[in-house]
Design brief:
Chain lengths: ~425, ~250
């Protein structure tokens, strides 16, 4: 596949049936296709198995949506999500589908700013704008949106979003005290009831055990991919791994696992054959911080455009999504829900206080990834990550880790400055 | 002969380096086609290597330069060559402000750079000078004449300009407002220095170092620190690039 003939496929009739702003959306489709071509298909020496993921982008507004609509026809719940805190196992056990919603693009921000304040997180604005402007087929296709209380901007936006699409909110604890764990367990149980009511059937122990295995396999496949990219020299670009981590949020999980594993087989062969994507002298960079939602490839594109390579994403769209597994075959419903609660309470989101396990996790991943430097990436107005950055910086200074902090949003206006900073950081590391 | 070109946001600087010495330099305002203009400035020379830096560095590499380095590395190298004892460089250019710390070899150890906007940069001072009807070269000296402290609270160029206008309209003499504008820039520089840490010897580079009030105010705010301004601060980036060009040839 080359840049010239890549296009995100159009499904105007389906979009019409989903009550979308078809004319406008079609323009966005063309733009996204062009950006994807420039960012992804110009890369040299990509693994052949990336063809599947290229196709997932080509079908992002059609093929995958059709699958969701088919699932809905069969009475399966389709849940739109934003956060790694959604207990996906429960949705899968009900025969349902989880899809990450659109929220990584500048294109929908003006739609949000007509209603919401400007000075809040760009991810929240982007996501809200996609619904307000009717320019995201996923938003149009879901039964309900799963919202959570990981930040103030989100939790208040859900109230307004709920006027446009049913939005179910789970309360995420802010500490990891026993009382907080109990509270989360009861939230999990409520969520199960909600999903069951939409599915019209009970989530049985067998089905839940099965779903735990599916999700564990998904997380293991992503762990395997992340371990393989840590090879030096790395067999795959950071951009490609980020793309797969993004696609993980909307692909069908069993198929996705098979495709990630066959990519991993290819990467093992590439490592054995010494095939790589960058010069062996390329500076290896680890990124830590906030999620980069599709199509936010800004930082990866700048780092890899400047001759570096990204070897790890410590982020919700990254290791935070797949680092923790669940115990399988727990035996009874109460135990499995408790195990599920335990697993989800391991997530080291900056919404927790204190959250020192994240500092340890960042340092651990830095070591495992063989990185030469760390970039902490935050979105503007993301107070929890922006403040936690102070502690990450200190920890890196203490360990002698070359470190840089970038705070940005989805707009292109700061690309020049970030490019200069990224290039200077790579110079600093290479000296 | 080696050449460094700094295609900055406001001016283009060229430095010619030969036998370990600075032998020539030029500064011109950047026009619409900075690479063409830079190329014209290079016409008289036959360099062995050209290294480009500044905002237009990649454009220069597309057209004529052999290699690019960032402004951050270039200012570090330039200052280290002229002033080997300096540990921290404050570079304030037309569009960016940066604080760069250097190791003993003159390599970049750490740096800070302004993010999105023109706050604390040469452009900020230009807009404020225009708002107070000062020619840019008189702006710093005028501020030095003021002995009164008024406050400008906003570092955002747009908001600060509103503050300047409201001070003007309260009848505050313009040299006092000029002083307030300079103070706010100096405070910002010192905040950046404090965030990144600095040694006993700080040097300025970049065009804003030609403003005597900024330099004086930063000097006053840093105790027991030697603050040096090189003879021609605007060309330090180009000088660093020229030295880098001489090193490319060696390796």
């Amino acid at each position: 596949m080359n840049t010239e003939n890549f296009e995100i496929k159009a499904y105007p009739e389906m979009w019409e049936s989903l009550n979308m702003d078809v004319e406008r959306f079609d323009k966005m489709r063309l733009m996204l296709g062009e950006i994807y071509g420039k960012t992804y298909l110009t890369q040299k020496n990509r693994p052949n198995s990336m063809a599947y993921f290229d196709n997932m982008i080509a079908e992002i507004h059609g093929g995958r949506i059709q699958e969701l609509l088919n699932a809905k026809k069969e009475g399966k719940p389709v849940v739109g999500t934003f956060c790694v805190y959604i207990p996906e196992e429960i949705v899968l056990a009900a025969g349902g589908v989880c899809v990450g919603l659109c929220g990584g693009s500048q294109g929908s921000v003006p739609d949000a700013e007509k209603i919401l304040p400007r000075n809040i997180c760009p991810m929240v604005k982007s996501a809200f704008g996609f619904k307000a402007g009717r320019i995201c087929p996923y938003f149009q296709a879901v039964d309900f949106v799963y919202g959570e209380t990981t930040c103030d901007a989100k939790k208040k936006t859900w109230e307004i979003l709920n006027q446009m699409v049913p939005t179910y909110v789970m309360e995420i604890p802010q500490t990891k005290k026993p009382s907080a764990v109990d509270m989360w367990l009861s939230e999990v149980k409520d969520f199960k009831t909600k999903v069951e009511s939409i599915a019209g059937s009970e989530v049985t122990l067998d089905k839940l055990e099965e779903a735990v295995k599916v999700m564990n396999n998904k997380r293991k496949a992503l762990q395997r991919l992340n371990n393989l990219r840590h090879a030096d020299p790395t067999p795959i670009s950071g951009k490609d791994v980020l793309l797969i981590e993004q696609i993980a949020f909307y692909d069908e999980p069993v198929r996705f696992v098979a495709k990630v594993n066959s990519l991993c087989d290819e990467l093992e062969q590439r490592i054995a054959d010494g095939v790589t994507v960058q010069d062996s002298s390329a500076a290896r960079i680890m990124v830590a911080g906030v999620p980069m939602a599709l199509p936010n490839w800004k930082l990866h594109n700048l780092v890899e455009g400047a001759g570096g390579v990204i070897v790890n994403e410590e982020s919700c769209i990254g290791t935070r999504y797949y680092k923790d597994l669940m115990k399988e075959n727990t035996g009874d419903m109460e135990s499995i829900l408790k195990e599920l609660t335990r697993r989800y309470m391991q997530i080291d989101c900056s919404c927790f206080t204190p959250n020192d396990e994240r500092i340890d996790q960042v340092l651990k991943e830095y070591k495992e990834s063989g990185a030469h430097g760390l970039i902490h990436y935050s979105l503007q107005f993301c107070h929890t990550y922006n403040v936690e950055e102070v502690k990450i910086r200190k920890a890196c200074e203490k360990q002698g880790i070359p470190y840089m902090f970038i705070e940005s949003d989805y707009s292109p206006e700061d690309v020049g400055q970030i490019q200069t900073r990224v290039e200077a950081f790579l110079e600093q590391i290479s000296e | 002969m080696f050449i460094g070109v700094d295609l900055g946001s406001r001016t283009i600087k060229v430095v010619v380096w030969q036998d370990g010495k600075l032998v020539d330099h030029k500064i011109e305002e950047s026009g619409f086609e900075p690479h063409e203009q830079a190329r014209a400035m290079l016409l008289p020379y036959q360099p062995r290597q050209i290294v480009a830096t500044g905002y237009g560095r990649h454009l220069a590499k597309e057209h004529f330069a052999n290699k690019v380095i960032t402004e951050i590395k270039a200012h570090g190298m330039g200052i280290h060559t002229l002033l080997p004892d300096v540990t921290t460089v404050v570079d304030i250019g037309g569009q960016d402000s940066k604080v760069i710390t250097l190791n003993a070899k003159g390599q970049v150890a750490n740096f800070q750079m302004n993010d999105k906007c023109a706050a604390g940069t040469g452009r900020f001072l230009e807009i404020m000078a225009a708002s107070l009807a000062y020619p840019l070269k008189d702006f710093g000296p005028a501020a030095l004449e003021s002995d009164q402290a008024v406050q400008i609270n906003s570092m955002c160029t747009v908001f600060a300009e509103s503050e300047v206008i409201s001070l003007k309209n309260r009848g505050v003499p313009r040299q006092h407002i000029a002083k307030a504008v300079h103070s706010s820039v100096a405070d910002r520089i010192v905040a950046m220095l404090n965030r990144i840490g600095f040694g006993e010897s700080v040097a300025f580079s970049g065009g804003v170092a030609n403003n005597p009030c900024i330099v004086q105010m930063v000097r006053d705010r840093l105790e027991n620190v030697q603050v040096t301004v090189p003879e021609n601060p605007s060309i330090i980036g180009a000088l660093g690039a020229a030295i880098a060009a001489s090193q490319v040839s060696k390796s």
